[in-house]
Queue: 2 jobs
Job 1
Amino acid sequence: MRKVFCVLLLLPLLAAAQDKTVISYNRVFVKPDKVQQFEKALTAHAQKYHKGDVKWRVATIESGPDAGGYHIVEGPTTWETMDKRGNLGTEHTNDWERNIMPLITEKFEAGYAVYRPDLSTVQLAGFSDKTVINHVFYKPGYFEETEAIIKNFKKAWEAGEQTIAVYETSASGAPQFLIVTRYKEGLKERTTGYLKPMKERYESSNGSGSWSNYQTFLRNGIDHSWSEMIFHRKELSSN
């Protein structure tokens, strides 16, 4: 009986350790005269080689410095599974090198990020077709303060019933939080007046003067930030 009790105590820890919260992402940029050929090759590649833990969700980048590129997200998975991923085999690698690489430019970006359920207001798999990503780069020594501010924003997002997924990048350049607004009702959610002003919701959720404190934190703790809009392309993604 004691052994059974010990196993039951361990179950929550085992479940947490196995949560699939890790994603990898790639950004590729297609040669101007190869778009149709690229999309056909990418679709075939994704649907043949990227299933399960390595499934792909593909989007086009519609604004910001990477506008015109393709945003490819793989996963979610775990770090343990990532250890065993390998290169998915010679056939997979050959298909990428022969059928896709000749169609893209030398510009390329890749990285890893971990979904943060404690900072988010939507489940990892609660995707939408229209999304805005805010890239927030904090200064060295300001990780905990940035995390605390995002927790304050979570209260305001919940007050407005916004669906926000927050990720923390991992070993992928300058440390940053990715604050991903998933528009469940589409881009009309960006219309002025659709939601109460953020300042009003933030102060209502965190107390009088909290917005002023946030503005002070921005000036001191954030190095820079930028945003972009991306549109999901279901037909290019894994089935």
Note: Residues 143-159 form the longest helix (17 residues).
Job 2
Amino acid sequence: MSKTSHRAGPARVQRRKLWPWLALLLVAAALVAGSLGVRQWLFQRWPVTPPGSQRVLIAPGASLPQIAQQLEQAGVVSDADRFSKLARWREVAQKIKAGEYEFIKAATPDEVLDRLVSGDVLKVRITIPEGFALREIAARVAAAGLGTAEQFLRMASEPARLRKLGIPGPSLEGYLFPETYIVTTTTSPAELVRAMFAQLERQLTPDLLAAARQRGLDRHQLITLASIVQKEAGNDAEMPLIAGVFHNRLRKGMPLQADPTVIYGVADFDGNLTRRHLTTPTPYNTYTRKGLPPGPIASPGLVALRAAAFPASTTALYFVGRGDGRHEFNATLEAHNRAVNRYQRGGR
């Protein structure tokens, strides 16, 4: 029986020669992929310390590569491309919030991305005291870095806005509620005006407006009277009494004779209220005109608003400052004059 030899064909020989090279390529590819994976893993977890305090403003609609490039230029992350890959891998590229961010401490790219997704933007706390007039509010807003006073005043006097909100006056004087607001550094004057007006609307509850209507006051008149009470009162406790005096005067057809309204109507008031001021007719001079002035003279707080709607029951028609933040209230002019002599003229 003869032995038959089987010799491998050329194709099989060629494949055998290629296998080592293919194996080597696979190993190399695995090593490269592993190296890239290790580098990305290290990138994600290696904290980067920015060079001092760095503020990064992410504009609305900014693309992921733009955001990553901003972060790299600020020294917040070490590699913009890898940061972009991280955001895509975590599927949060479309969830990054616009705004201004501040980076001070060392942070990993994962931690940086968490802040961007949660919207951990810079905040600004701005307090508007009760009794501030519109120009004072505008100055406070400008001092907080939220635009210029002129921009704020323009937004608060925009005719289209006033018509939409049903404001009969030339501005939102009195309609911007005094409170502490926490906003972002990118909050615009228009956004702040909307927020402050919305806060006032929340305070004007149905029972408050109903009580005001029962006393003959619409919304505008309520806020106007409350603003006068706010400026006249030295403390919250006296506000219902002061409101009661003004309601009595309005009912009797007497002029309100409120100094703060006169002052509001004086251009460039220098702090010294004179007899000339009291006798010069202006729309806000409640010594020469009966009834309420055309509109609010400041932003009243909630206590003043409620005092104007729910005044104290009193027979008083007059009050005078005692010099200690309180007032003396009287029902007759004779008693009032004696109180004026006692507290303001040294008993003369």
Note: The first helix runs from residue 10 to 45.
